[in-house]
Amino acid sequence: xxxxxxxxxxxxxxxxxxxxxxxxxxxxxxxxxxxxxxxxxxxxxxxxxxxxxxxxxxxxxxxxxxxxxxxxxxxxxxxxxxxxxxxxxxxxxxxxxxxxxxxxxxxxxxxxxxxxxxxxxxxxxxxxxxxxxxxxxxxxxxxxxxxxxxxxxxxxxxxxxxxxxxxxxxxxxxxxxxxxxxxxxxxxxxxxxxxxxxxxxxxxxxxxxxxxxx
Length: 214
Known about the structure:
The termini are far apart. The radius of gyration is 27 Å and the shape is elongated. By secondary structure, it is α+β, with helices and mostly antiparallel strands. About 50% of the residues lie in helices and about 25% in strands. Helix 4 (about 125-145) packs antiparallel against helix 5 and helix 5 (about 155-180) runs antiparallel to helix 6. The protein folds into 2 domains: about 5-120, CATH 3.40.33; about 125-214.
């Protein structure tokens, strides 16, 4: 058997980088064989990821024995840390699971409770304005390059590359800004897109310089 462990993870957002702050709280329910808390924590995070959860506050508590519903709750409430977690307002969802197995030829039940709560990103005013400004700038500049398609003495191959890069950046920026407006976390794909905008901008500027010199 195992020592019951309480896990608590909070994912917070700092600038454009999502950093995980892992806080471990351990609460033994009975004196038995210990487990590796890091390994158990990683299993929980992997399970949450497979279930589609992201950017949440999560916790797990478990105990052993056979209980009616009220008895199980009373058992959990015997432990201060567990009680604080169960009564916390930061969790909106809870799931319970019970597993029965033979231990030393005796039936044993383990009851596990998983809790989860959503943490909104709450983007800063500066972040919102930055993406809104980028969209406006791109919308203003793209038409002038599109008009140059009919001009002579311009390298049309380079011009098309510039237009393609600008329209890609505009499409990406609108996608990111729409998510920010809803105060939703970026998906993994969108995080990559947001981080890649600097590279696209530098590539565009390089091509524009070549276009001007010709």
